[in-house]
Amino acid sequence: MKGIILAGGSGSRLHPLTLAVSKQLLPVYEKPMIYYPLSVLMLAGIRDILIISTPRDLPAFKRLFRDGRQFGLQLTYAVQPSPDGLAQAFTIGRDFIKNESVCLVLGDNIFYGAGLQKLLLESRRKVEQEQLAVIFGYYVDDPERYGVASVDRSGKVIAIDEKPAVPKSNQAVVGLYFYPNSVIEVADGVVPSPRGELEITSVNQHFLDQGRLHLQQLSRGFAWLDTGTQESLVEATEFVKAVEHRTSLKIACLEEIAFRSGWISGGQLSELGDFLGKSSYGAYLKKIANNVESQAY
Questions:
Q1: Which residues does 159 contact at the CB level (< 8 Å), separation at least 6?
Q2: What pTM, to 2 d.p., does this model score?
């Protein structure tokens, strides 16, 4: 399975913060925002990843991550000339995806929960073994702001509505999607909506019409944060800070995920800690490396 992070757009709701820098490079506590969606792909065991961004911002992502080798990844990059909708990610990424399945995650979405990796791996299995499309739902009080999934008592998706005036449920469809390879062909057939965008809802509707759309609900114990406004950006920072201080563990630590997954060695982890100098993040990496080495892992 391949992974795509869509990190484009102008971030106009965050102006003036985003006048000179990509929204996805803004800090959420001690890490750039894009670390969080990238960690989701890594937890799903995905190592071949495409980052899509604007012509202005793409060089900054390349400076941040280079080719991804330090995380045991293979990163490539592509330009989205204009923000023409989420479904455009699959046409831009056609040559990258090739004949594999794909997971798309939005660059401003943060996911957290103790059982998150299990859900991600199960979603990947449903795509690869059952050829289903998997979307994620999260209960919200204001569903009219989102794409909304309606499900029957068995949990089967029966309707998808984009920002409905009268929502049929409170299950917002969040920015994480798993698809079989046929999504490329589906995206090719999407026509622009009245607002001129290639909507991901149209892609989901196709799989729904085929009876191949599965909703994975993020239930109690999971957190989903969309960092598209100043208020939500502050809330996300406070949330990450609180969790990390209470647990003494870091959320979305890419180097740690790579190490725990066996993609890099303890020595490489320690070197990455040294590279980050006197920062608390670098000290955390060296602490993990030293503890593991002393326990003969």
A1: 149, 150, 168, 208
A2: 0.95
Cα-based distances in Å from 226 to 57, 129, 174, 281 = 20, 30, 9, 24
- The rounded distance, in Å, linking the Cα atoms of 173 and 151 is 12
pLDDT tens figures, 205-229: 999 999 999 999 998 899 999 898 8
Q: How many helices, marked H, and strands, marked E, lie in the chain? A: 11, 13
Number of Cβ atoms within 10 Å of the Cβ of 17 = 13
Q: Give the pLDDT score at 297.
A: 26
Supply the pLDDT for residue 292: 59
- Per DSSP, the residues of 78-143 read EE-SS---TTHHHHHTHHHHTTS-EEEEETTEEEE-TTHHHHHHHHHHHHHHH--EEEEEEE-S-G
In whole angstroms, give the CA distance from residue 112 to residue 12: 26
Burial class (CB in 10 A: 0-12, 13-18, 19+), 119: buried
- Lookup: tokens for 169: 């449920």
User: Helices (DSSP H) in 161-279: which residue ranges?
Assistant: 183-188, 200-209, 230-247, 254-260, 266-275
Q: What is the mean pLDDT of residues 161-181?
A: 93
Between CA 137 and CA 99 the distance in angstroms is 27
CA–CA gap between residue 263 and residue 281 (Å, rounded): 19
Map out the domains of the chain as residue ranges.
Answer: 2-131+175-189+213-264, 265-297
Superfamily classification of domain 2-131+175-189+213-264 = Spore Coat Polysaccharide Biosynthesis Protein SpsA; Chain A (3.90.550.10)
